[in-house]
Amino acid sequence: MCIRDRPYTVLLNSDVAVTSNWLEPLLEYMQQHHHVAACQPKICSYSQKEYFEYAGAAGGYIDKYGYPFCKGRIFNVVEKDIGQYNQHAYIFWASGACLFIRTHVYKDLGGLDELFFAHMEEIDLCWRIWARGYRIAYIPSSQVYHLGGATLNKTNPHKTFLNFRNNWFLLYKNIPQKLVRIFFIRFLLDIVAVLKFLLSFEFSNAMSVCKAHFAFLRTYRKLKPSRKLNLSYTTCFNIPTIYKHCIVYQFFFKKKKYYYQLPNINESL
């Protein structure tokens, strides 16, 4: 929902159920913190209201290899909301399911990139916000409920394709340093993902990962002007909410399944 010539814009999915007075805490916070360009409420599951929702939870983060995760949800592990994340915090990305943003920032940055479609375009937008020196916040005193999966079901191979392709789009557009090294490591990790799908007899998902790589190679030239513009902002080289570790290693090898177990995330307000 975009209100023309108004100071704030709300991006709100059609499968989100809002609560009474949910906008007031967001508006109040933004009016008092002018360096914050966008924020999100606490997002819980519509079908299991005591749990966080997969796409947003208590705010989004990203690791140094471009893997997104949330406070309250890492990969397929979703936490129960017991008040453990009831503090305001800086986050790397706010969920597109319910994103509250200053209208002039949204317009100045060109809004959501249409090349992404349905996956990670809000992360791309939030990366651009941080790169221009603004902040993004999580406001737990506001709460909404998200049904999730209304655009594409989690088991849909096209969703797998978009997740992998758009993640490569995201990295190419925004990573300022060591791009070749990060691409090489991500390619190896994607091969591991393909093998995992094959061993689970998810052949369509395995093929979707391969298709995503070819789609990126066909399309990345269209992203060159955006990459050049993004890298012209020197603040993009040191964004504190980018997780400096590998979330894949932390989750699968060190068995850190919950956000509060992760070391060294900078979210202080």
Structural class: alpha+beta
Shape: globular
Q: What gap, in angstroms, lies between the N and C termini?
A: 28 Å
Radius of gyration over all CA atoms, rounded:
18 Å
Topology as a string of helices (H) and strands (E)? EEHEEEEEEEHHEHHHHEH
Largest sheet: 6 strands, mixed
Count of individual beta strands: 11
Extract low-pLDDT stretches. none
- Percent range of helical residues: 25-40%
Number of helices: 8
User: Which percent range describes the beta-strand content?
Assistant: 15-25%
What is the residue-mean pLDDT, rounded to a whole number?
92
Summarize the structure.
By secondary structure, the protein is α+β, with helices and mostly antiparallel strands.
Structure report:
With 269 residues, the protein is α+β, with helices and mostly antiparallel strands. 36% of the residues lie in helices and 19% in strands. The chain has helices spanning 23-32, 103-108, 121-131, 157-174, 179-199, 203-219, 224-230, 247-253; strands at 8-12, 16-18, 36-45, 60-63, 68-70, 73-74, 77-78, 89-90, 98-102, 135-146, 242-243. Strands 1, 2, 3, 8, 9 and 10 form a 6-stranded mixed sheet that branches. The chain has a 3-stranded mixed sheet with strand order 5-4-11, with no helix packed on it. A hairpin with a 2-residue loop joins strand 6 (73-74) and strand 7 (77-78). The mean pLDDT is 92.
